[in-house]
Amino acid sequence: MSEDYNASIWDLGVTDEYLEDYLGDLREWVHNSCDRGYYSPDLPTLNRYTHHDVFIYGSNKKNMGRPWLVRKGTPLGVGYTLSDKFVMYSETRDNPEAVILPSGTPSLCASVYGELYRITTEQLLQLDFNMSNRSQFMRIKQTIRVKRGDQYVNYMCWIYVGNRSYWGDKINNADNSHKRLSLCELTSVNIGNRLIPYYNFQHKYTKKH
After folding, report:
1. CA dihedral 13, 16, 22, 24 (to 10 degrees)
2. Host H or E run for residue 11
3. Whole-model pTM?
4. Is the CATH number 3.40.1190.10 carried by domain 43-205?
5. Could you say which of 53, 106, 118, 143 would form a disulfide bridge with 157 (CB–CB 3.0 to 4.6 Å)?
């Protein structure tokens, strides 16, 4: 059976070199599919839409360390999370990044400042991979207030929130200083008649080379 099969393949002009290339492509396809299945389990739902709005608040922002992740996206403006129940940390390891976590401590709670982009499904999948969605971060829906002239309009979009089960042991970790996260400074902005406290990840939080 094996000889007949090989003979048939040869008759079709399929060489061993071709088969090796094909199997290599197949392995890569399976590997990528598994990654997408893990980091983006909602892929069937995402594929119903051609574009998605995503809120970026860390080193993916413009002129920061990793803007290439959304460079092909369409900028929709800057804004703040409607929720003011977040606390932001900055990593102190080799790859500095902003980490926001829901907080129950009123003195630390605030909104988050960032940039809003409209990206393709493929770009969102790349973000899922780079942000380790479902592992280091969780991609969730949040309402963002985006400034339009003198007014603010609301956008519902994706945002990556830190997974506490991953980051929890790295917060104020006195036993392992290289895992310790530094709390970002709070500032504030006037929106309507309210003074809104917010976090903003800036260049000063990134690693100095």
Report:
1. -170
2. helix 2-11
3. 0.80
4. no
5. 53
